[in-house]
Write a structure and sequence with these properties.
Elements lengths: L13 E2 L6 E2 L1 H18 L8 E5 L4 H17 L4 E8 L7 H14 L3 E5 H5 L3 H8 L4 H19 L4 E3 L5
Parallel strand pairs: 3-4, 3-6, 4-5
Antiparallel strand pairs: 1-2
Length: 168
């Protein structure tokens, strides 16, 4: 039996875990965007004129965040100055593809990109750290440095806030 969208009557594509509604693609997008807008407004997350750095790894979560922020900023006239902020840890072969994705996001969403490297911030790459300390606990070091690099990168570009995809 074909399930129909509970909102528009078109063929349902998925069942929303939050509401258990059967929805089509377009109604899902609308509900998703409306809920995020409502969260932004209810919690007063942004103020007109703020510069917001979107933490961009090049993965699907940060790409969705860049999309939703640019879409809602335009649709609801938040008046935000959006930009992408990406971190290059300096791990050979690790970040290359995702940085290319972030560069495509810059073009697609027409927002500037700043890539900040460990080398620029700390004077060494993660590969250089591993060469000194070995592979033991290197993920712990990298995680701490990465979070600090986002904070430092936001400071360098004079961002008022950082939007991170984990909080969607």
């Amino acid at each position: 039996m074909v399930k129909l969208c509970t909102h528009c009557g078109q063929r349902a594509q998925l069942k929303r875990p939050k509401t258990f509604d059967e929805v089509c693609r377009e109604c899902f997008y609308k509900a998703f965007e409306d809920e995020i807008h409502e969260t932004i407004m209810d919690n007063k997350l942004f103020t007109r004129g703020e510069k917001v750095a979107i933490g961009a790894s090049g993965g699907k979560d940060s790409t969705v965040l860049a999309h939703i922020m640019t879409t809602l900023n335009a649709r609801h006239d938040y008046g935000l100055d959006l930009m992408l902020l990406s971190i290059d840890e300096g791990i050979t072969g690790y970040r290359d593809d995702s940085l290319e994705t972030v560069k495509r996001n810059e073009l697609q969403y027409k927002i500037p990109l700043k890539v900040v490297s460990y080398k620029e911030l700390y004077g060494w790459t993660m590969d250089e750290i591993v060469a000194q300390i070995g592979k033991r606990n290197n993920c712990t070091f990298c995680g701490v440095f990465r979070r600090q690099a986002l904070d430092r990168g936001a400071w360098l570009v004079k961002a008022d806030k950082i939007a991170m995809p984990q909080f969607i």
